[in-house]
Specification:
The structure holds two protein chains of two kinds. Chain A is an all-alpha fold. Chain A folds into two domains: about 30 residues, no CATH class; about 230 residues, MetI-like fold (Orthogonal Bundle). Helix content of chain A is about 75%, strand content about 0%. Chain A is built from 13 helices and no strands. In chain A, helix 7 runs antiparallel to helix 10. Chain A starts with 7 loop residues before the first helix and ends with a helix. Chain B is of the alpha/beta class. Chain B is about 45% helix and about 15% strand. In chain B, the strands form three sheets. In chain B, strands 2-1-3-10-4-11 form a six-stranded mixed β-sheet. In chain B, strands 6-7-5-8 form a four-stranded mixed β-sheet. A two-stranded parallel sheet of chain B has the order 9-12. In chain B, helix 2 runs antiparallel to helix 14 and helix 17 packs antiparallel against helix 18. In chain B, about 50% of the residues are buried. The chains are: A mainly alpha, B alpha/beta. Chain B: InterPro entries: Bact_solute-bd_prot1, SBP, TAT_signal. Chain B: This is Multiple sugar transport system substrate-binding protein. Chain B: Keywords: Signal, Sugar transport, Transport. Chain B: It comes from Nonomuraea dietziae. Chain B: Pfam families: SBP_bac_1.
Chain lengths: ~290, ~425
């Protein structure tokens, strides 16, 4: 292998270019991240002197802050629901649409339409549907269920609303992937006598692997950053707690429990890091092969 | 390198960015001070700036009108969205605040005064003190005994009802809890929902807690509880929740999915019989029907305290510790303390009352007159739960706790234990 010798000028350009990128990265990403971790060990309220209190915030969180565990539960539910229900359903829709049904363009647009809405808007629409006094659902079915106020059911109906948008998103990505699958593969499978289901699961689906990874990442990100829809509905309280909401609730606002809120943020960071690290290590392992 | 890498990086960036947010938020300067440089040529007289949360049309217009009559200095008003102003108050006062800013009386004022973020205006009070009742002065006084706040307008909380409906059904305002319960039962038999109720926003239920606590245990205990000096597991507190639980069957069901506006409309539509709320409930009534709106103060529970206390949150003005033009700011506060200034505001905004005892009440609407009468009869004026205690306790503990109670009213003991544990963490 020939090692290239860099001229002084090359080095300067390299150093400058890399340096700028590293600086921006440190200042905008690692700096605030580490600052959050450091703040989580204090009881700072934005005004007082910084006072180190060790891991007390974490203890308070786990033992004496009831919204915390409901938020953890809801985040996990959210991830499971999007991953196990909404995403497979999106794939299912994509497969159906890929078969060029009549009016498939119409279905496609109808399913994709919600994706252009922000989740906050989906939240407002959800209220029009689920409100116990003026909501469409109760008006049509004659029920009197308090869909959004009853803390044992509201997370489910809100997840349905969030999934409504997520399905379209996943569908369009899979549809693009399916269109790119070489028809020769399917023909070959058919000649070999594979059934429709076998063709899909054994031949087509494995070729979608890159798409699957994208969709997985999107799903995880969507689940962890869920915020706007519950915030639009009831500020993420009473059954709709999410970690992201608790961070905001404690830090932003008059409360200004910055240390305490940072501790919640650190926990969210750890959870996301677990996903990101798993994913990255998988990716690098494959590259090495 | 695989073509997938960009996504990886993006996911990592997103992740990292999301967790950096708290630190950025914590560190960011204050966004409220992007004042446009205006009012040139004012150097001779000086300029006083006001940081205002009066972003709604009517309050905004009323402040502008009142300030226009101030002649001793030029005034520049920097209006910020109401909720944004409140949410950023810490950073705002620490950064480069305006000379004068809108704020609330009571503990919420004392909290910032204690941190050294407000200017002592006891000298202003020597001049204006005669215009206010002792209750208003107490609400303007910091924990060090000095004054930091000038009351401007306020509104009382009471039980509202439609007079026409009550006359038709022959209901009369109750004076004791037993009469209140009997009335509610009668309304239920008549096919009405006795008490309109909504707590989706989290704060309206605080009004019910406040009044039940003040009627049961008195104002002093209530304030002491709010200041973190009493235990939430005290049997006295439990009794408040027990009483409330007894009334739950008369409350409008599904309250956690309803906003106060919707509950207010149910009162206007005569679907509900009465509604414990602030005087701003009138906003939900069409102009023509507002004269039909009447109220009574929540009835007596414990004869020792009678009906001597009410919630009547006071809005007013303070001077920031970093004010540049303190003399001008004090002159402006004196102007705002004048009865004529407050009357100009109450005329424009019929949901409020003037704080000054010298204010002219002849221009008041019937509802405003009744409100002023109610407050003048009260010995103690509380400021509402989220103004009488630490902001972090009110928003991160009490809102979820009261919503939990409304959802499961039978679960009182564990709830109070949880509140007490969190209180101990916050007030330490």
């Amino acid at each position: 292998m020939i090692t290239r010798r860099y001229s002084r000028r090359d080095l300067a350009v390299l150093g400058f270019g890399l340096g700028a990128a590293v600086l921006v990265n440190l200042a905008l990403i690692w700096g605030p991240t580490l600052a959050s971790v450091a703040l989580s060990g204090t009881d700072w309220n934005g005004i007082s002197e910084l006072r180190w209190i060790g891991t007390r915030n974490y203890g308070d969180l786990a033992e004496e802050y009831p919204p915390f565990w409901s938020a953890v539960r809801n985040n996990v539910l959210w991830l499971a629901f999007l991953g196990l229900v909404a995403t497979p359903f999106g794939l299912f829709c994509a497969v159906l649409l890929d078969r060029r049904l009549r009016l498939s363009r119409v279905y496609q647009s109808a399913l994709y339409m919600p994706v252009v809405l922000s989740l906050a808007v989906v939240g407002f629409i959800a209220q029009l549907v689920y409100s116990s006094d003026y909501g469409v659902l109760n008006a049509v079915t004659g029920l009197t269920t308090d869909w959004l106020g009853d803390s044992s059911i509201n997370i489910w109906v809100v997840m349905v609303a969030a999934a409504w948008r997520h399905v379209g998103y996943v569908m369009i990505i899979y549809l693009a992937g399916l269109k790119a699958v070489d028809p020769a593969l399917k023909e070959a499978a058919a000649i070999d006598g594979a059934s429709e289901a076998q063709t899909f699961f054994r031949v087509v689906f494995p070729t979608l692997r890159p798409i699957n990874v994208i969709v997985l990442v999107i799903t995880v990100i969507e689940a962890l950053r869920a915020f706007d829809i519950v915030y639009a509905i009831n500020k993420g309280r009473n059954g709709l707690e999410l970690l992201s909401v608790l961070v905001t609730e404690n830090i932003v606002g008059e409360a200004s429990r910055i240390g305490f809120g940072s501790a919640i943020a650190v926990i969210l960071l750890v959870i996301s890091m677990a996903f990101i690290v798993t994913y990255l290590s998988q990716l690098f392992k494959e590259d090495r092969r | 390198m695989t073509p997938r890498l960009p996504i990886t990086r993006r996911s990592m960036l997103l992740g990292a960015a999301a967790f950096g947010v708290p630190a950025i938020l914590a560190g960011c300067g204050n966004p409220n001070t992007q004042n446009t440089q205006g009012a040139s040529g004012s150097a001779a007289r000086g300029t006083v700036t006001i940081g205002s949360n009066a972003s709604d049309e009517i309050p905004k217009k009323s402040l502008e009108t009142v300030v226009k009559a101030f002649t001793q200095a030029d005034v520049r008003i920097n209006t910020v969205d109401h909720n944004t102003f409140q949410e950023n108050i810490n950073r705002y006062l620490k950064g480069t605040p305006d000379d004068v800013f809108t704020w609330f009386a009571g503990y919420r004022m004392q909290f910032f005064a204690e941190q050294g973020l407000a200017t002592d205006i006891s000298d202003v009070w020597q001049e204006i003190g005669g215009d206010y009742t002792p209750a208003f002065k107490a609400a303007s006084t910091g924990s060090d005994g000095k004054q930091y706040f000038v009351p401007f307008t306020y509104y009382p909380w009471a039980v509202f009802y439609r007079r026409s409906l009550w006359e038709e059904k022959g209901y009369v305002p109750p004076t004791t809890l037993d009469e209140f319960t009997a009335l509610a039962r009668k309304m239920k038999a008549d096919g009405l929902v006795p008490l309109a109720f909504a707590d989706k926003d989290g704060w309206p239920a605080m009004g019910t807690f406040d009044i039940l606590n003040m009627r049961t245990n008195g104002y002093d205990f209530h304030i002491s509880l709010m200041a973190g000096k009493e235990s939430w597991t005290d049997p006295k507190v439990k009794q408040v929740f027990d009483t409330w639980r007894g009334l739950m069957e008369f409350h409008q069901p599904a309250a956690l999915g309803r906003t106060w506006q919707e509950a207010g409309q149910s009162l206007a539509q005569k679907k509900t019989g009465m509604y414990l709320l602030g005087m701003f409930v009138a906003q939900q009534f069409p102009e023509a029907e507002r004269d039909d709106l009447d109220f009574f103060t929540f009835p007596e529970i414990n004869p020792r305290f009678g009906t001597d206390s009410i919630d009547a949150p006071i809005d007013g003005y303070m001077i920031s510790a970093k004010a540049k033009n303190v003399d001008g700011a004090k002159a402006l506060l004196k102007h705002l303390a004048q009865a004529s200034s407050q009357n100009a505001a109450t005329k424009l905004d019929p949901g409020t009352l003037a704080s000054s005892s010298k204010a002219d009440t002849s221009g008041y609407s019937a509802l405003q007159k009744r409100g002023a009468e109610l407050v003048s009869q009260a010995t103690h004026i509380a400021q509402f739960l989220d103004r009488d205690t630490r902001p972090d306790f009110a928003s991160t503990v009490m809102i979820p706790a009261l919503q939990r109670f409304v959802g499961e009213p039978d679960d009182i003991d564990p709830l109070l234990k949880d509140i007490e544990a969190q209180k101990a963490n916050i007030f330490r």
